[in-house]
Task: structure prediction
Amino acid sequence: MNRTTLSLIAGTAALAAITGVASLTAPGASGAAPAKAAAELPVERTTLLCPAPSTSDLADTSYTSYTPVTKGAGGAGKARLQAATEQSDGATGGKGTKDKKGKGKKAADKPVLTPKEPGTPVTGDTSGADAPALIGTAEGKFAPGWTVQETTEVAAGTGRGLQGVNCSAADTEFWFPGASTVATRTDYVHLTNPDDSAAVVDVELYGKDGALKSTVGEGITVPPHSSDPLLLSTLTDEKQTDLTVHVNVRSGRVGAAVQALDDKTGGDWLAATEPAGSLVLPGIPKDATSVRLIAFTPGDTDADLKVRLASPSGLITPAGNETLHVRAGMTSAVDLGAVTRGEAGSLVLTPSARAVPVVAALQVVRGKTGKQETAFLPATVPVGTRATSADNSGKGSTLSITAPTGTAQVKVTASAGSDGGSPVSKTYTVKAGTTQDVEAPVPNGAKGTYALTVETLSGGPVYASRTLSATEGGVPGFTIQTLPDDRGLVSVPQADEDLSVLQK
Result:
């Protein structure tokens, strides 16, 4: 959530508190009218951060920006996505974002993308290993629900295949279960600072026996308007298959994402996930040949979880993997095999007894030996009022929706295409405990890529993800992005001025 939104909430909350005191102390308070319900208003400013896409000379990256049309949003505003300007100090092994001639500021002055109007996607592209991290800002009518997708195709080498990530907001804490430091993996945590002052960050690694010893990850300074890719294997000498990465910001704020690359099975971005007692990981591809569950509990209490799969016909328990025990402060992992068995599926984790906050993600592999590709699917929050997925292209996109606890009705809207076409909407009913790979609408006369917006009409809660696929050389390249609530609306309490509170 951006700082303008936080200031607005703080200001209205303070005014509401004063008004509340007045209603208790002013004459005639007993006859005061009931408090009005909070209004849902569009956010006025959104900041998104996109990590540097690749270190491969064979990488081709596209960016897609989209803002859904939001009722009540202002008629003015602007948005742009541009390169971070500062150069990393290099102390952590990361590469800076200034160009080779030291002209990072000049390069950053030219936006990579400048959206024209809400409701229509805008695209841009780049290639090679020198593409920088990007910092984006949207204001006014462009801010509510602004979504930017970064998609990269790597033709060969470590991490070859399709990699995708939703550019995300800055925050002060992030959890990434699913990283690794084994010899075949090259994993980076990308830290991007959008602000005018430096951020100080701690990066902690947790393996199967607890925290890994490291002092290198403490007190990392990320300069203003810069990005630093930090190689995880430089933080510890231990080689572990399954790690949980914890990014804790001591001062300032950053955006964070983990890039997990394998020598043989491709790779992808691992988005952050939040601790919760019950978790939903929506949209496992139906042709997944291997699914690995990685979980971690950050507290000092063990967690016991029921493991169920929400299939097209209802909730089922995977044979031999009915429960998962997660020891406090330690990363646990279990192989679920080809758990979907050719059908759409979502993993649902619920507490066996008392609820203990847990973070979890799936490492998903498609294809046969020698021609395999990997993607990651973290637990996510519900779609809520609205969620958006950018960069869709007909047969290459699969939209998966699950309603684990109650039947829900959702509306899916395909936007206009980036090069032409008109929006189309469809309504779907998702039964309780099931997952559907829906046949999402396509814009009339679609040209270019388009966005899919999912809205919860009734029931739920609803969880969703979108899978992009692109097979090259027999390798089934794919990437999965979840669809959490876009936070385009914020609750603002209704408050009336009452100067009688000043009479005391």
Observations:
- Residues 468 and 479 are 5 Å apart (CA to CA).
- Helices lie at 3-25, 104-108.
- The mean pLDDT is 88.
- The chain is about 5% helix and 45% strand.
